[in-house]
Amino acid sequence: MSTPVSVCSLAQIPQPQIRPVANFHPDVWGNQFMTYTPEDKILLRACKEEQVKDLEKEVRRKFMAASAKPSQLLNFIDAVQRLGLAYHFEGEIEEALQQIYCSFHDSNDRDGDDLYNIALQFRLLRQQGYNISCGIFEKFKDHDKGGFKEALITDVQGMLGLYEAVHLRDHGEDILEEALAFSTTHLKAMVEHLQYPLAAHVARALKWPMRKGLERLEARWYISLYQDEAFHDKTLLP
After folding, report:
1. Residue 157 three-state SS
2. Residue 141: helix, strand or coil by DSSP?
3. CA 43 to CA 28: how far, in whole Å?
4. pLDDT digits (tens, 9 = 90+) for 164-221
5. For 102-139, how does the pLDDT look when each residue is reduced to its tens digit (9 = 90+)?
6. pLDDT reading at 1 higher than 60
7. Tens-digit pLDDT profile for residues 30-55
8. How far apart are alpha carbons 52 and 231 in whole angstroms?
9. Is residue 119 within 8 Å of residue 164, measured between CB atoms?
10. CA distance 163 to 232
11. Are the C-beta atoms of residues 100 and 70 closer than 8 Å to each other?
């Protein structure tokens, strides 16, 4: 038998309130304040955009100026890429590297045959997808004693460049495997005796070679060191 519900109990239950619906007119201001940008910020943004355009023009001018000097051009491309600016100058970089690749066998067009420049050229071309031969490092081997020339050990920049370059090796390139062992051994032995910023470059490379690093993180780290380089280009710095 069901229990009767008291009328008084039902009366005590709160009833929902019916609110009047206001029929407001559309706001004459529309969404202006939702999208409003202060005038000074607009001017600042326009000023920065103009500065960026001017800097891009200056960098493109330097690409043109360095085109007759392959070693200078390679170093400039390397700085642009490592600073994370390459996406602004993809066309200029591709054109420059294609020119360098095509003139590679013409010794008259090369003004840097030292280990550093050869290694830099090899790395940049392979990064760009060019099938440059690892045979360019044969000239640095001592075929009488075997292995690489001992004189290279004192060329720290060259050894570092070689170390970074060989990380773009393909399977079966024995000379690059040998170069990796050679450069790694001697860089580890000398890193504690180097001065900043070269010491920082070597220590970083031994821990995280460029080939294995994340581009954005590498750029952020490189900016902090590039400004301390003796021959840095101020145009490329923020």
Report:
1. helix
2. strand
3. 27
4. 999 999 999 999 999 999 999 999 999 999 999 999 999 999 999 999 988 888 999 9
5. 987 655 445 568 999 999 999 999 999 999 999 999 99
6. no
7. 454 455 556 666 766 766 677 778 88
8. 22
9. yes
10. 22
11. yes
**CB-CB contact of 226 with 237 (8 Å):** yes
Separation of alpha carbons 73 and 97, rounded Å: 9
Q: Report the alpha-carbon distance of residue 165 to residue 143 in Å, rounded.
A: 22
Give the pLDDT confidence score for residue 28 in this predicted structure.
40
179: tokens are 């170069």
* Residue-level pLDDT at 51: 75
Q: Encoding tokens for residue 113? A: 């045959």
Residue 103 is predicted with a pLDDT of 85
- Cβ atoms of 109 and 69 within 8 Å: the answer is no
Rounded to 5°, angle at Cα 193 from 191 and 199: 45
**Termini Cα distance of the chain:** 86
Phi, psi for 68 (deg, rounded to 5): -85, -5
Find the Cα–Cα–Cα–Cα dihedral 162, 167, 172, 174, rounded to 10°. 30
**In the numeric block, which tokens belong to residue 29?**
């201001």
Contact between 187 and 206 (Cβ < 8 Å):
yes
In one-letter notation, the amino acid at residue 48 is K
The answer to whether residues 65 and 86 touch, using CB atoms and an 8 Å cutoff, is no
Q: Which residue has the tokens 């440059």?
A: 132
Question: Could you tell me the CA-to-CA distances from 169 to 93, 123, 205 in Å, in that order?
Answer: 22, 9, 16
> Which of 120, 116, 65, 113 has the alpha carbon at shortest distance from 97?
120
